[in-house]
Amino acid sequence: MPERGFIEVDRVEKVFDVRRRTGFLRREVRRVRAVDSISFTVARGEMVGYIGPNGAGKSTTVKMLTGILTPSGGRLRVAGIDPSRERTRLAHRIGVVFGQRTTLWWDLPLIDSYRLMHRMYRIPDARYRENLDRLVELLDLGALLDVPVRQLSLGQRMRGDIVAALLHDPEVLYLDEPTIGLDTVSKARVREFLRELNTERGTTVLLTTHDLQDIEQLCSRVMVIDHGRMVYDGALTGLHEVGGAERTLVVDLERELPPIDAGPAARVVKVDGPRQWLAFPASESAAPLVARIAAAYPLLDLSVREPDIEAVIARVLSVTGGAPEPPAERETVVPGAPSS
Ligand SMILES: Nc1ncnc2c1ncn2[C@@H]1O[C@H](COP(=O)(O)OP(=O)(O)OP(=O)(O)O)[C@@H](O)[C@H]1O
Ligand SMILES: [Mg+2]
Fold first, then answer.
1. Nearest residue CA, atom 2 of ligand 1?
2. Where is this region: Disordered (predicted)?
3. What percentage of residues in the chain have a pLDDT greater than 90?
4. C-alpha 250 – ligand 2 centre gap (Å)
């Protein structure tokens, strides 16, 4: 049977009814449409970024894709399985990493969590050994296997969680903020690992992040969600073009000089002593600009700052006019009955 999409999401909705006390014997039910009729498909082997501002509905989507939450409407399939109806069967085929939480046993040494997963997922012994060795080496966790999870640093724990999610060879990996709070070196290591996992093992990856560099370095396709609605699905370069986002080149000169003339490609937006900030379109490469400045100015140092993901999204929304204000029906206040 031909596979349309490995992940199929068709007009999926999730509505939360949040109860709130407003006085003695009085409560209000606030209806939040966390995911509001979203549709997309992801092919096997794709690596897709899923981004959006706080509260946009990203984690809610991921939770529905794992079966933790049941959609209020629409149709959802992962590997042909309806996640909320066959959560256990699906669990053998997916891996999940929630950057803000851990699936590891807090008080146990790392290796004990893996042993428990070995049994929970009934991973054949040889495969478990092989996967464990490979993953531990790739993520450099060898020296930490006997350390209780609560003693690990955030970056170490995150790498530990990634290993845990992959021991059973899942076909798809959902990552919800896997680089949150990590230092540059750990981020680079995690990204490198994910790239390899995707290209060499063909693992399908859905990556939620607030770090645009994660997306830039890993995903050719990005989906943007805002207020529960899909506002963009396409190439990252396209997102930059739609959003007109700019990157910033920070230049340290040997001495104070008048604003750099970098031609039409960039403009100086700030000067502070020998340091100057130049804005240029995020869809362009920095290389020609750097070459041009290096040829004409006494340079000490350079760095490129990525546009803030929220700024890019805000621009996209203002251009496309997509899901701007929370629509009137999105948060409905229903006067509730007295507490029962
Ligand atoms: N269990 C829940 N009960 C009630 N409301 C919820 C629940 N989970 C999420 N929400 C609400 O649904 C909306 C979407 O939340 P979600 O966690 O999916 O956002 P997010 O895109 O992951 O945001 P962030 O970038 O902050 O992680 C928010 O308004 C949130 O308050
Ligand atoms: Mg979230």
1. 16
2. 321-340
3. 63
4. 31
